[in-house]
Amino acid sequence: MKMALRACLRTKPGLTALLSQLSCSGHAAARRAPALVAQRSSSSTSQKIKVDFDQSSGVAVMHMQSPPVNSLSLEFLTDVCIALEKLEMDKSCRGLVVTSSQPKVFSAGLDILDMYGKSPEHCAEFWKAVQEMWLKFYGSNMITIAAVNGSSPAGGCLLSMTCDYRIMADNPRYSIGLNETKLGIVAPFWFKDTMVNTVGHRATEMALQLGLLYSPAEALKIGLVDQLVHEDQVLTTATETMTKWLAIPGILNISYTCHFFHLWCCNLVCTICSCVCQVIAAKKIHLSQDF
Ligand SMILES: CC/C=C\C/C=C\C/C=C\CC/C=C/CC(=O)SCCNC(=O)CCNC(=O)[C@H](O)C(C)(C)COP(=O)(O)OP(=O)(O)OC[C@H]1O[C@@H](n2cnc3c(N)ncnc32)[C@H](O)[C@@H]1OP(=O)(O)O
């Protein structure tokens, strides 16, 4: 599925343009961006994102370093999107590994504090940034691997599911899943679709209805992650796996069917509708709080 999106983006420039209009690149572009320089290895850092790029292998490693738990705030999401955009523009970068610099946590999902008691404008901007992250990762031209070296609930799980492959630390204290239901909120349908594309319909129904968080072993069993390794080995395994993937001829140029393109269009249209609804809902909440 991820590859289908990538192909659509490559073959439909108009769509890419539409996407970029929908996305929050506007505010993103105004911010500082980690630079990639033409040398064998480079490292670039924003406050919350560190990118190490090895030009000889064409593989970049994005370290999320937003303490304490890499929660996805507007600022953090913007940094992630800028870093990804930069890598995407560098055609020598063919693979991206995403991992966490925080102990025990890959990402705690959306920053709850950035969703509560904020202006409708902030909420709209925030929500756009969440969608942009999803679209950018899912539609990436690079091979993407999530090195899930800690817990990854809700939006953190979404982030990992937008990657081509997930390697998780085999530590039963960690968990991963879309647990929104348990928090009393409904996972947006495109979270759901992403999970369906990863683990199938029935597993997703169960996961979302019950707000399940899975141990690494359970996650492997349902296909939510692809591989478990000792936590010291997550990053090295990810880069080794990347090398194998990139050695496959034409891996970045696989052709895709119209079916996937239609599905992607549906997702896009629904996303626009959802975005409008979220903003209206946020405005209503805001108004009701005033009384
Ligand atoms: C703006 C929106 C506008 C319109 C949209 C409207 C509606 C949208 C509708 C639905 C949206 C649905 C989508 C939701 C997706 C999400 O991602 S929701 C977030 C769900 N996240 C969680 O449930 C994770 C909760 N956290 C944990 O389970 C644990 O913290 C974790 C396992 C990650 C780590 O555990 P541990 O190492 O023990 O650390 P602590 O629990 O002690 O936490 C450390 C500090 O971090 C703070 N924190 C944890 N998670 C978050 C978070 N998601 N956002 C902000 N802050 C977080 C925690 O409070 C501790 O802070 P403290 O040290 O106490 O100050």
From TrEMBL:
Protein name as annotated: Enoyl-CoA delta isomerase 1, mitochondrial
UniProt entry tagged with the keyword Ribosomal protein: no
Catalyzed chemical reaction(s): a (3E)-enoyl-CoA = a 4-saturated (2E)-enoyl-CoA; (3Z)-hexenoyl-CoA = (2E)-hexenoyl-CoA; (3Z)-decenoyl-CoA = (2E)-decenoyl-CoA; (3Z)-dodecenoyl-CoA = (2E)-dodecenoyl-CoA
Quaternary structure and partners: Homotrimer.
Highest taxon of source: Eukaryota
Organism: Astatotilapia calliptera (Eastern happy)
Molecular function per GO: delta(3)-delta(2)-enoyl-CoA isomerase activity
Subcellular localization, as worded in the UniProt entry: Mitochondrion matrix
